[in-house]
């Protein structure tokens, strides 16, 4: 029986390679982001708060904060990393403390509903053979009116809009899970506590939306089960990934970032890239010089009235002709769009779908466009000079 969870699906959607390394290859990461570490400590503290309440004990704020700090010290390890520059472990420790303090003051004495379960394991009935979808509900409550509340604690530094909350899959899946456990689950509130903002966000799911979420999840699982391609997906989340040393997009950066300056500059890859950029810049400079020389040759040929100019061992031939030019999407957009409509009405847009001026000229010259349409097209035509230089070796001349 293969196990899936919301966090696994989220990992796959964020980066298929990370999903493979973590859940298929089962490679353990040596690092843990400070955000995840702090989030775990806050969750443990809130679990204690409500577990004490279940035992008819009201945990004081002082005891709660002491518990938080004790667990922080007990679980802290060398692999906890701070990605955001300019901040320290202590900064995040204080954020977690503030989250707990604001929550405590907001909800004390924590009796708005009956707590049914804490860190409750839940299985979501997807109806897919061989697949078990599981999760954990941070807190499940039931109000006096019978309404169930699925609570989720978030220590994120970003507060989502209500529209995003209304599209969230995780708690919707957990709703499907609790509906399969008890007959009296008829009304369910989904509740998110964004602790860093002292905000409570709520949402409800209609039956149609729940079924839609279920289908979406089954579709993602099917995609995972039938693919053999788990490509890395670069995003701002990469800085928090514990598999950078195994990722083809980040492996070299991970490697050289740990080298001292003298070893960094001597590393083969660094030297190759530095030389490549050096050559590329030289080519760019030479290309600019080439264009300047071409213009100088055109001016010389026009001034001297010649089409062929000799050098020591080579000669150049200059050809100047007139050619039609039509509006481009990067130029006059209004004229471009107007011409496109003309071509579409004439049924020839597919043949010049990128508005290839050369192809359009060919169609006109071949007589494949009706005269009336040609006249419309000509209204967009601009005659420009087409200057070209052709080089050839002068026979019998030894290059000096």
Automatic annotation (TrEMBL):
Signal peptide: none annotated. Residues 276-303 form a coiled coil. Keywords: Coiled coil. Pfam families: PDDEXK_1. Residues 4-248 form the PD-(D/E)XK endonuclease-like domain. InterPro entries: PDDEXK-like_dom_sf (IPR011604), PDDEXK_AddAB-type (IPR038726), Restrct_endonuc-II-like (IPR011335). It comes from the Archaea. This is PD-(D/E)XK nuclease family protein. The lineage of its organism: Archaea, Methanobacteriati, Methanobacteriota, Stenosarchaea group, Methanomicrobia.
């Amino acid at each position: 029986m293969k196990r899936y969870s919301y966090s696994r699906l989220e990992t796959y959607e964020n980066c298929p390679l990370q999903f493979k390394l973590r859940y298929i290859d089962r490679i353990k990461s040596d690092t843990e982001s400070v955000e995840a570490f702090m989030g775990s400590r806050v969750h443990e503290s809130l679990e204690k708060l409500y577990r004490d309440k279940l035992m008819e004990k009201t945990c004081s704020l002082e005891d709660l904060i002491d518990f938080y700090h004790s667990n922080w010290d007990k679980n802290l390890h060398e692999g906890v990393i701070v990605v955001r520059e300019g901040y320290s472990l202590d900064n995040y420790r204080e954020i977690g403390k503030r989250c707990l303090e604001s929550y405590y003051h907001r909800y004390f004495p924590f009796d708005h509903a009956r707590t049914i379960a804490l860190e409750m394991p839940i299985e979501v009935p997807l109806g897919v053979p061989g697949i078990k979808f599981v999760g954990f509900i941070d807190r499940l409550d039931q109000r006096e009116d019978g309404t169930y509340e699925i609570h989720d604690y978030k220590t994120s530094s970003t507060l989502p809009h209500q529209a995003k909350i209304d599209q969230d899959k995780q708690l919707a899946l957990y709703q499907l899970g609790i509906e399969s456990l008890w007959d009296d689950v008829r009304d369910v509130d989904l509740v998110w506590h964004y602790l860093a903002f002292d905000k409570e966000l709520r949402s409800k799911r209609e039956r149609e939306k729940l079924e839609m979420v279920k289908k979406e999840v089954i579709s993602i699982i099917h995609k995972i089960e039938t693919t053999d391609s788990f490509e890395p997906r670069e995003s701002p989340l990469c800085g928090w990934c514990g598999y950078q040393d195994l990722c083809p997009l980040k492996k070299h950066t991970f490697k050289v970032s740990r080298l001292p300056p003298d070893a960094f500059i001597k590393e083969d890859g660094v030297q190759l890239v530095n030389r490549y950029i050096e050559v590329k810049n030289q080519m760019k400079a030479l290309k600019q010089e080439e264009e300047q020389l071409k213009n100088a040759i055109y001016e010389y040929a026009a001034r001297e009235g010649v089409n062929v100019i000799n050098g020591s061992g080579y000669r150049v031939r200059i050809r100047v002709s007139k050619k039609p030019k039509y509006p481009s999407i990067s130029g006059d957009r209004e004229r471009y769009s107007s011409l496109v409509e003309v071509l579409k009405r004439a049924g020839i847009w597919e043949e010049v779908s990128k508005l290839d001026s050369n192809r359009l000229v060919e169609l006109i010259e071949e007589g494949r466009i009706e005269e009336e349409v040609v006249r419309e097209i000509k209204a967009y035509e601009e005659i420009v000079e087409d200057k070209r230089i052709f080089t050839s070796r002068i026979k019998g001349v030894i290059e000096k």
